[in-house]
Amino acid sequence: EGNLNKWWLDEDYEAFEEKQKEMIALFDGVETEAGLANGKLIVSENIADQGGITAALTAAKDEKDVDLKAFFSQWAKIWRMKASKEFQQMLLSMDVHAPAK
User: Fold this and answer.
1) Domain hosting residue 36, numbered range
2) What confidence score (pLDDT) does residue 3 get?
3) Which of 4, 29, 68, 87 is the most exposed place for a label (fewest CB within 10 A)?
4) Is 2 among the domain residues?
């Protein structure tokens, strides 16, 4: 019914918090041509992307004809972007997605 419930065990939530800190640290301050990435701003999407690519890679590895070079090349291609430096700076300040490059 839309009621907010605490469903995580305390130790699971603590483990998640530690993993989240690692993800923030991984991306915080990454240099782009438009400025530095803000790890805290983009952490939720980075976690979602990491989960998605992990699930997709796990499934792909079960295929006998998996082409991992193509798998990762396609992942990189979907994040291509051509934008002005000013637009990229605006995204760095407010977009919850990591910089495309």
Assistant:
1) 10-94
2) 84
3) 4
4) no
The DSSP secondary-structure symbol of 63 reads: S
- With both helix axes pointing from N to C terminus, report the angle between 39-61 and 68-78 in degrees, rounded to the nearest 10: 150
Rounded distance, CA 92 to CA 40, Å? 12
Say what the pTM is. Answer: 0.83
Contact 30, 82 (CB under 8 A): no
Q: What is residue 31's three-state secondary structure?
A: strand
Per-residue pLDDT of the chain (101 residues; tens, 9 = 90+): 788 888 899 999 999 999 999 999 999 999 999 999 999 999 999 999 999 999 999 999 999 999 999 999 999 998 899 999 999 999 999 999 999 87
**In sequence order, which residues have a C-beta less than 8 Å from that of residue 58 and are 6 or more positions away?**
none
Does residue 1 fall inside a structural domain?
no
Number of domains in the chain: 1
Is 3 inside a domain boundary? Answer: no
